[in-house]
TrEMBL record:
It comes from the Bacteria. Pathway: Cofactor biosynthesis; adenosylcobalamin biosynthesis; adenosylcobalamin from cob(II)yrinate a,c-diamide: step 2/7. It catalyses: 2 cob(II)yrinate a,c diamide + reduced [electron-transfer flavoprotein] + 2 ATP = 2 adenosylcob(III)yrinate a,c-diamide + 2 triphosphate + oxidized [electron-transfer flavoprotein] + 3 H(+); 2 cob(II)alamin + reduced [electron-transfer flavoprotein] + 2 ATP = 2 adenosylcob(III)alamin + 2 triphosphate + oxidized [electron-transfer flavoprotein] + 3 H(+). It comes from Paenibacillus beijingensis. Homotrimer. It holds the Pfam family Cob_adeno_trans. One of its GO terms (molecular function) is corrinoid adenosyltransferase activity. This is Corrinoid adenosyltransferase.
Amino acid sequence: MRLYTKTGDNGQTSLKGGRVSKDDLRVEAYGTIDELNAFVGQAQAEAQRHGKLSDLAGLLTEIQHELFDCGSDLAFAKFNEDKMKVSAGMVDALEPWIDRFIAEAPELKRFVLPGGSALASSLHVCRTVCRRAERRVVTLASEYEINIEVQRYLNRLSDLFFAAARAVNARLGEADTEYVRSAEVFRSPRKE
């Protein structure tokens, strides 16, 4: 198999059902998701090196598959609901992981800076690229009909990356670095 086809040399690329400019909103959205997937792969490789993080390594592999599904859903020239892969169930499945990771980390009172362990730093990169991918999908949705579950998935996924970064630091004995110029902005819910 040849890797190069030369069909994109003129600035066009193929979608499912047509060709568009390489800077088309759909290409920008699923291209940013592809970039995110590469960063998730980097974090997954790091997680595999730690015995305490095998659950996270497995989750990150599943997320990589789901990100491919997200990109696939956005790669149609014309929306076709019957061919969509991302579902509300995929979004809902992220929430117990978020809750679990939040429970592992110390209570949050201030904003935290990305950092701590190398893996937590990688997960913060994933979070920020995920937010950018979400913004690209929001822009896309303002122009084209899309599977809105992709947008919901990315929104929830960025929360997961934040929670996982803090849990990783806790498991590895690394402290989060609080943003010291901030007042306490997060408070525990009142007990009644």
